[in-house]
Write a structure and sequence with these properties.
Layout (H helix, E strand, L loop, with lengths): L1 E5 L10 H10 L4 E4 L2 E6 L3 H17 L5 E4 L4 E4 L4 E3 L3 E5 L11 E2 L4 E6 L4 H5 L1 H6 L7 E6 L5 E6 L5 E6 L5 E4 L4 E4 H4 L9
Parallel strand pairs: 5-8, 9-10
Antiparallel strand pairs: 1-3, 2-3, 4-7, 5-6, 7-9, 10-11, 11-12, 13-14
């Protein structure tokens, strides 16, 4: 998803979490929340959607009987430590899904998060958003899939609790998601994708 400028509603620029959740529950379009500000999210182009769909189908098949479940971009994730509410392109939760106040809407415990990069979101997803995601205690892998070129970046926590980068840049390579014990060929991730449309 692409993030726009902060929203001003009802003559206000900052909102409480309760106000945001109340507005979001009746909103026609999704918005992010961070430290009082609300940010509208725009739709994504065809390559972005194809990649997301390919990943959802593949992960859904690979994770059967593994105790982990993938969710699409309609699932909202909340980072309690820094106040972020956001909609990752894919969230994978292993074990019981925990939500804010058991509301079944704001997931707290993803194991893996995947963002599909677009021209307008890639810097945010690689930088500030990743910093915010690192405050999720259960997160062990963060995967960035470029929709503009063949490139997958995997940030994973190593044994020393540092985030380590691994990159995949060739169509014949196979993405390894250690936390899920699954592998996905890049050819499957990028199936049907024509670059230059994102």
């Amino acid at each position: 998803m692409e993030v726009r400028e902060p929203i001003v509603k009802h003559g206000k620029k900052t909102f409480t979490i309760a106000e945001y959740l109340e507005m979001e529950n009746v909103a026609a379009e999704k918005s992010e929340y961070y430290q009082g500000e609300i940010f509208a999210m725009s739709g994504a182009k065809l390559p972005h959607n194809r990649i997301s769909s390919n990943l959802m189908i593949t992960l859904g098949n690979r994770l059967k009987q593994k105790g982990c479940q993938p969710f699409g971009s309609d699932l909202r994730v909340h980072v309690e430590k820094n106040s972020l509410f956001t909609y990752p392109d894919l969230s994978i939760v292993c074990g019981e899904v925990k939500t804010l106040n058991d509301d079944e809407m704001n997931v707290l415990n993803p194991t893996v998060l995947i963002e599909v990069l677009s021209k307008s979101s890639k810097n945010y997803d690689r930088g500030d958003k990743f910093k915010l995601y690192r405050d999720i205690p259960t997160l062990t892998e963060y995967i960035l899939v470029d929709s503009l070129s063949l490139n997958v970046e995997v940030f994973r926590l190593n044994k020393n609790n540092f985030w380590q980068l691994e990159e995949y840049r060739a169509i014949e390579e196979i993405l390894l998601i250690h936390a899920l014990q699954v592998s996905i060929p890049l050819a499957d991730i990028y199936e049907g994708v024509t670059f230059g449309q994102a």
